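User: I'm writing a short report section on ligand binding and want a predicted complex to refer to. Could you take this sequence and zinc ion and write out the structure as tokens? A short remark afterwards would be nice.
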Amino acid sequence: MTEILCKTDSFARSVRATVIECVATAPDRFHVVLDRTVVYPGGGGQPADCGTVSGYPILDVRMRPDGGVEHVLQAPVAGVVDVEVNWAARLDFMQQHTAQHLMTAIATARFGWKTIAFHMNPDRSDIEFELDSVSRQDLMTLEEAVNQAVFDDLPVSISFVSREQMSSMNVRSRLLPDGLEGPFRLVGIEGIDLNTCGGTHVQSTGQIQVVKILGTEKLARGVRVFYAAGSRARRIFEQTIERESAIGAALTTGPSDFIASIEALKKSGRDLDTSLRQLSARLAGLVVERMLEDAGSGQVAVYHQDEADGDFLRQVAERFHEARPEALALLTGGASEGLFMVVGSDESVRRVGPAVAGILQGRGGGRGAIFQGRARALSLWSEAVAIIASESARST
Ligand SMILES: [Zn+2]
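Assistant: Sure. The structure tokens for the complex follow:
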């Protein structure tokens, strides 16, 4: 049985203890049970603490069914040792955890919201309330009431009572396993809450410093409310300011102009798209005019542009075919490899499309007037043009 000092004194950061048991489970894994510890072994929604034993980092810590707390170390220890808890992380847990007690109690009293779960994550903590939806107004009211309780600096007390004593008290959570006789540990916040809990808490609500609600998430069974308390809230605020200043530098405006600036950028993007579409349609028109001249003078109608994409080639092909359905043409885009399209009468395209794909070492397909595909050897372009030329000569 290990005496867990943080159950009665959550501000005990270190203690001198005696090793009761040290068992090797691997060459570099030793399970160490001490007569006392300041390290919380986890439970009740609160993660286990980190810390050291004789300077060795505690790799894991857990409660055994016999009441012993097992500290997993990389080296063996014996005799008298010094146990130290990672205080910054512990204080952070205590701020989040006590803030959760406040939020749950005030949400129940003010709005009748039932807490169904809570999580102490490394970045954001959250509470799940049994609700269909929640308004921003109600969340702000809750946040304000919680921060008022922080400002009031109410004492947080720890007491141990029997099941009988507890039945006559107004305790929030009475869901205890049958047959468990206690004593039960109660955590009280003066005038606000009395609750069974095994975790660690700050000594008064003022030590929570601040509670900020960060957002919500809809769940099948309720609404999850994210929050941060204490130094963590300050850290998140600092990150937000950094991000805001980076956005300001990128947009070259202040925060009050962010939305207007982003809207203007989006509009300018849309305007550019429109201009580009119009220019591209005009260019396609000019390209088709020139191809029609070539076709009219008995030459093979071809078009090639290194930068041309599939949409542009298709636009040209369709307009060319519309103007002269019986004429064959070859369109290509890309440097050494890229795209190709053969356009003409269904019959001619069916005959030369696959042959062109073969020459350009590509593959493709298509029905009707356009056969298109990818080409791996655009360097063989003139051979493809020769096939088009002989097919044109044959069909006229
Ligand atoms: Zn608690």
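A remark for your report: The chain has a mean pLDDT of 93. The domain at 274-395 is CATH 3.10.310.40 (Diaminopimelate Epimerase; Chain A, domain 1).
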